[in-house]
Predict the 3D structure of the following.
Amino acid sequence: MTFIQNLISDDIIYALGWTMIHSLWQGMLIAFLLAFALYFLQKRSARLRYEIASLSLFLILVSAVCTFIWLYDRVASAPLSALLIQAATQYFNHHLPLIVTVWLTGVGFFLLRLMGGLAYIQRLKHQKNRPLGDYWQAKMRTITQRLQLRRPVRLLESTLVNVPMVLGYFKPVILLPLGAVNSLTVQEVEAVLAHELAHVQRNDYLVNIVLSLIEVLFYYHPAVWFISANVRNERENCADDIAVRLCGNTLTYAKALVSLQELHPT
């Protein structure tokens, strides 16, 4: 008996191990269909592409859950030895405990990394930052009203960030790099604020945590990382579209992005 077999029953090891194996072809199929769909949706709205990409990621999770339930029900209703002979090759059946052990180890690592990231976010929210002046607070309230946001959003200037960002869901905070408002025109700052407030309006922070948990579970799957990259890219495109619509000038927003890049070159 291996260590993992002492902690988890053979039925669950069987269902988990084969769920992971089946997720490889399931995820690749979903990723292929997504790539096919995105190719034909290049001229459609970023919001549509974002929703399809997000749905694809959730579909991988749903298919895995359904597969696990189906496999577990089968193994519970039939002798394990007979089921293994019928359902799988002897090689994989022999190594299922190792496969599950490696998967759980990876999940633990990536979960710790996610928790560390969330802890760092709390540091950013509470350390080495300060509220921007009343002028900019008023500007932000104006944009907030135009977006019909009801949640209060704090606007802070931080020495710890190089790019604007939104942190938190229930009490969202917008952090701007130190000195950013002095390096941009008023219109450019408004465009940046519109972009960040668009993330608040769309609940992107909360959705991103959920998607990050899916990435933790399927850290081994290249299709999941491909889909996640598309989700993040289209999420930014959605916020860009809202910012451009509010500021009414694509060039202004583009200049703001260039100015921020020049302020903190990578």
Remarks:
- The mean pLDDT is 84.
- Residues 38 and 134 are 43 Å apart (CA to CA).
- The first strand starts at residue 129 and ends at 131.
- The radius of gyration is 23 Å.
